[in-house]
């Protein structure tokens, strides 16, 4: 006599994972957190402001010749806008990520863009200080 073959009625379902309870995925129609969206929008705004200022430099230089004052004003406006927008993106994104609000991808992207803008702002301050020293 041969051993009985297990049939569908004797199969067992796989055991649940042992790492603890799983967090349910948000429903496809779930809304994103306003903080996550704000972080993403302000992060993208830092990139747009930087692109606009970069494209404005040739026009400023061609219309005024090389005026250190006009270049300085344009760089100051760019620094203030990028710094403020980057700070808002980092703060709102970090709050959304820490609270685990829906839309973590938006919050992470906004935080990364804002952090890059803040890093650029700090490096521009260091560059200005180096010009004064050297």
Backbone CA Rg: 26 Å
The description of the largest β-sheet is: none
Instruction: Please report the total strand number as a whole number.
Output: 0
Which residue ranges are poorly predicted, with pLDDT under 50 across at least 5 consecutive positions?
none
Determine the strand fraction and express it as a percent band.
under 5%
Question: How many H/I helices?
Answer: 3
What's the shape?
Answer: elongated
Mean pLDDT across residues: 83
Q: Could you state the order of secondary-structure elements as H and E?
A: HHH
**Helix and strand composition category:** mainly alpha
Number of separate structural domains: 1
Gap between N and C termini, in Å?
95 Å
Helix content: 55-70%
Characterise the protein shown here:
The chain is mainly alpha-helical and 134 residues long. It has one domain (32-133). The chain has three helices and no strands. The protein has helices at 34-64, 68-98, 104-133. The mean pLDDT is 83.
Quickly list its features.
69% helix; 134 residues; 3 helices; mainly alpha
Overview in brief:
It is built from three helices and no strands. It has 134 residues and is an all-alpha fold.
Helices and strands, with pairings:
Elements: H1 34-64, H2 68-98, H3 104-133
Helix pairs in contact: 1-2, 1-3, 2-3
């Amino acid at each position: 006599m041969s051993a009985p073959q297990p049939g569908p009625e004797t199969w067992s379902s796989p055991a649940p994972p042992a790492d603890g309870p799983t967090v349910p995925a948000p429903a496809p129609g779930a809304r994103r957190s306003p903080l996550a969206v704000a972080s993403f929008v302000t992060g993208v705004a830092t990139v747009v402001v930087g692109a606009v200022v970069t494209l404005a430099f040739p026009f400023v230089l061609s219309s005024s010749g090389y005026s250190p004052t006009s270049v300085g004003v344009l760089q100051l406006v760019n620094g203030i806008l990028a710094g403020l927008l980057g700070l808002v993106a980092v703060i709102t994104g970090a709050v959304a990520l820490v609270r685990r609000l829906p839309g973590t991808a938006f919050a992470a992207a906004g935080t990364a863009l804002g952090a890059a803008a803040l890093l650029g702002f700090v490096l521009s301050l260091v560059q200005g200080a180096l010009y004064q020293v050297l």
